[in-house]
Specification:
InterPro entries: Metalloenz_LuxS/M16, Pept_M16_N
Largest sheet: 6 strands, mixed
Shape: globular
GO molecular function: metal ion binding
Protein name: Insulinase family protein
Structural class: alpha+beta
Pfam family, one: Peptidase_M16
CATH class: Alpha Beta
Number of strands: 8
Length: 217
């Protein structure tokens, strides 16, 4: 049964939805001027059913590292909560941040997405974590074959993980984690970046999609 609230919702979308390409990255804004928490979702076109089994999920883990710095620690500095997951054809990153730290969160987060170089220590650390995940899923889903098979296609098994090299992942990252393959969905109060003029909006948005790392104390 259709309800009036559906029409109101779509009307709200028509009024508040903005689709822009800025610096090659597609950005979709759903502006809610009364929001005090901003939600950022980054969708990257690489999933578990593509390339070598387990590779996309492995890269998802590596995206939390850059120059021996951990993204979780950096986001914690900005008071940002984040998570990530890999599906069949996409990798998703979800972040919740304050309005005041939205620009810092986006700028730094983007610099990690566009990083394609990892140390052997970072590689081995995430490999160990993933192998433990594999064991955990096999234990939890031992009686649920259908779910287990789905998970195995995404993260792989122990042998498949051990067959993935750091060089292969860095090369695949440089191919798939390009700006043209990234789509940001931003929900919250972005009034200061949105203008009735598309050109002015794009100028205002430019600072949030560069690849520079903001250094902090």
């Amino acid at each position: 049964m259709k309800m009036k609230v559906t029409k109101l919702f779509y009307a709200d979308l028509d009024q508040n939805l903005y689709n822009l390409f800025q610096n090659e990255i597609k950005v979709t804004y759903f502006n809610k001027s009364d929001s005090y928490i901003n939600q950022i979702k980054a969708v990257v076109n690489i999933g578990g059913y593509q390339y070598q089994t387990g590779a996309a999920h492995f890269i998802e883990h590596l995206k939390f590292w850059k120059e021996n710095n951990n993204l979780y620690d950096l986001m914690n500095y900005f008071g940002t909560i984040m998570n990530a997951n890999t599906t069949e054809y996409e990798t998703n990153f979800l972040l919740y941040c304050s309005k005041e730290n939205t620009v810092s969160t986006l700028t730094n987060f983007t610099s990690y997405l566009l990083n394609h170089s990892y140390t052997i220590e970072e590689f081995n650390k995430e490999k160990k974590i993933i192998l433990n995940e594999v064991k955990g899923y096999h234990s939890i889903l031992v009686d649920e074959n259908e779910k287990l098979e789905y998970v195995k296609k995404i993260i792989g098994d122990e042998n498949q993980i051990n067959d993935i090299s750091k060089r292969y992942l860095e090369n695949l990252s440089s191919i798939c984690y390009q700006k043209r393959n990234i789509h940001y969905y931003l929900i919250g109060d972005f009034s200061e970046y949105i203008h009735k003029s598309r050109e002015i909006s794009m100028e205002k948005i430019e600072l949030v999609v560069n690849s520079d790392l903001i250094i902090h104390d």
